[in-house]
Amino acid sequence: MKSSLFSPLSSKAYRRFYVGQLFSDLGNWIDFTILTVLIIYEWGLDESSMALFVIVYGLPWIVISPFASVFVDRWSRKKVLMMTSFLRIFVIIGYIVAPHFYVLLILVFFKGLLASLFDPARQASIRSLVHESELSQGITLTQISLNSMKIVGPSLGGVLVASFNSDIAFVIEAFCFVLTTIMLIFVDIPEQNDSTKLNQFQNNKKFKKELQEGIKHIFNSPILSTAIISSALSLFIVFLCDGLLVILSKQIGFNEAAFGLLISLVGLGSVINSFVFGQLSLWKTKPLTVMAVNFSLTGITIMIMGLGGAHYLQLPSIIYYLCAFLLGAMSSGQNLPYGYVLQIETPNEKMGRVSSVAQSLQMMMMLLAPSIGAFMAKAFGVGNVFTLSGILCILAASSYLIFLRKNNLEVQYDQRAKKQSV
């Protein structure tokens, strides 16, 4: 029997878990906005300080997360989720009393570390709380939470700072994590194995060996390694121009309000397409192909924006708005199949390590690409960077599709999807 997008929410445990992650995602996106305002507007620091903040924000995901993920797989997922949510409350309180920028950076790093532990535990918990026949719906709902909070969080953060001040906004953010912690208290997250035996077994193993198991699992699964590498490559190419969108917007004559609408449409496209994907099941038979097609369409959309920004094409404003919406939609068109492959191809007892290694690679690409993109923009112009990024997306996606056809990687998903639809 087919299940609807919201079928997982019929489970009381998953419903509480989902509400908890909604508040967590909201807090995270309020956080980024408030910190940006604090650094640039209230403290009056420059672009180099902002760049350092972004690097420190993402550094724990690259440097520490893969190693810390060993403990995520050892410990109770519920305890990891609760403790990382609870401790973030005190980090946010630290933001309020931070005397200067460098103390703030230490707190930002620690909060990033807690987030890098929370997310793998969240990924593993979805598998524990949702039946495999509803796994794609559970992943889709998580993606909807992330994408909808990307819209609500920055807007709410901006309103709070404008109406009150950053301190009040931080208090509201801390309250989000209070609610997350409370919701998680009442969630019973079953472990896939007997926890006592599992801990005794894993604690006797060497830390290095456990970490290597997660990495080896990725490379021993051609489907999983292909999905992770293609996702990282996609993020690298897209992020070559992602940070330049505000400059492109200015060059084509958009004011601040128009740019805000552009960003909102990206989030809206992502949320709407997540709902659409949640109602469909065909993409589960060939998730890697769906990723590649969306990657290619992303390239076409970016190239159109670049050609307009470089004035090779004269495009009306509505085309840029449509492109922004499509970019959001195609982003979820890549993220949902990727999340599905990650869950299906990874044993639950290794989910923390595997997802952390994957996120580490993705975050590395996301931090490296903007610097290269900024250098290219100075040399060739912003519009040309968008155009080049679009062409690279199309070439990479085409090569990816050829690789999939040549190696016939997705046959097993046809059978699995048919079983889930029965």
Automatic annotation (TrEMBL):
The UniProt record lists the keyword Transmembrane: yes
Domain Major facilitator superfamily (MFS) profile: residue ranges: 1-408
Keywords: Cell membrane, Membrane, Transmembrane, Transmembrane helix, Transport
UniProt membrane topology term: Multi-pass membrane protein
Subcellular location(s) of the protein: Cell membrane
Principal place of residence: membrane
TM segment ranges: 21-44, 50-73, 85-110, 168-187, 223-245, 257-276, 288-312, 318-340, 361-380, 386-404
Superkingdom classification of source: Bacteria
Pfam families assigned to the protein according to its UniProt record, in alphabetical order: MFS_1 (PF07690)
SUPFAM superfamilies: MFS general substrate transporter (SSF103473)
InterPro entries: MFS, MFS_dom, MFS_trans_sf
Protein name (record): MFS transporter
Organism: Bacillus changyiensis
Lineage, top ranks: Bacteria, Bacillati, Bacillota, Bacilli, Bacillales
